[in-house]
Design brief:
By secondary structure, this protein is of the alpha/beta class. The structure holds (5S)-5-amino-3-OXO-hexanoic acid and zinc ion. Zinc ion (ZN) binds next to loops.
């Protein structure tokens, strides 16, 4: 089985210090959280950035500042900026971090309700526009799918030439408005992607570690982090993103799955 790629989604756009005081907002806090995850075994940092008061932003300069500071302490790590940003942002606002030519960035493959009154908008033309920009800039998209229909959208856009193979998916499971985090649904998604595709799974809240375990057994990859879940176990807040990654590493060891370094992750994903 391939080595396990662990992604740490350290910050997100919606989770707050009120949920867990260790959620990073400032540059220094982002560096601290990225380093804790990297030291524990994460090879990819999925990155959102905030202003110091916690407001999410897709500002190119803020991304550059945070990315440069992370590279100083984790020189070989893969930083994957979000192009999802926060609900309500415009397309061009969301695309700003792709101007920094990262190796990898997210590409959200459909629209969904996002709790309460929020709608996370990704029309077909938006997805095509984002895919084109990423192709122009040599960025591999990680295909964020919050439901089965979004896999179908990605496959359709592959046929039309917008998304290249090998495709790499992220199954984000358990968002209020998307597919559940039940194992039945994981098996459904996992069986719906091409044989030559790779995938990682991001279980939201209580689904984080059950889905991580399923992916470890199945040969997939795993995303954990405060963006998705702030608890290390029921009712106990995680002290850091590193603590969440350490738990995944322990589970992987139990099943004999080795952990990929950033360069090994690049090879598995076909980026260099
Ligand atoms: N913050 C969500 C609305 C991504 O990073 O590409 C979207 C999101 C997906 O987090
Ligand atoms: Zn994200």
């Amino acid at each position: 089985m391939e080595k396990l790629i662990i992604t740490a989604a350290i910050c997100g756009a919606e989770v707050l210090k009120e949920h867990n005081p260790a959620v990073p907002y400032t540059v220094e806090e982002c560096v601290r959280e990225a380093k804790s995850a990297y030291d524990a075994g994460a090879s990819i940092i999925h990155l959102h950035v905030r202003y110091d008061d916690g407001t999410p932003t897709q500002d190119r300069n803020r991304f550059k500042e945070v990315m440069d500071a992370i590279y100083k302490v984790c020189p070989d790590v893969i930083i994957q900026p979000s192009t999802g940003g926060a609900v309500g942002m415009s397309n061009d606002e969301r695309l700003q971090p792709t101007e920094l030519n990262p190796e990898l960035a997210t590409l959200d493959c459909g629209t969904l309700n996002f709790g309460g009154d929020d709608v996370f908008m990704n029309t077909e033309n938006t997805i095509k526009y984002f895919a084109q920009k990423m192709n122009e800039r040599g960025i591999k998209p990680e295909l964020e799918v919050f439901d089965k229909s979004m896999i179908d959208m990605a496959l359709r856009l592959h046929k039309k030439g917008f998304i290249k193979k090998p495709m790499h998916f992220d199954f984000v499971m358990g968002v209020n408005g998307g597919i559940t985090g039940e194992l039945r649904d994981f098996i459904f998604l996992r069986g719906s992607i091409p044989d030559d595709a790779t995938y990682t799974v991001a279980g939201i809240g209580r689904f984080e570690f059950t889905l991580a375990t399923a992916a470890i057994i199945d040969g997939g990859h795993v995303r954990v982090g405060f963006e998705d879940n702030v608890f290390i176990s029921k009712g106990v807040l995680a002290k850091s993103n590193g603590e969440l990654v350490e738990k995944v590493v322990r589970i992987a060891k139990e099943f004999g799955r080795e952990i990929a370094s950033p360069n090994e992750a690049r090879k598995i994903l076909g980026i260099n």
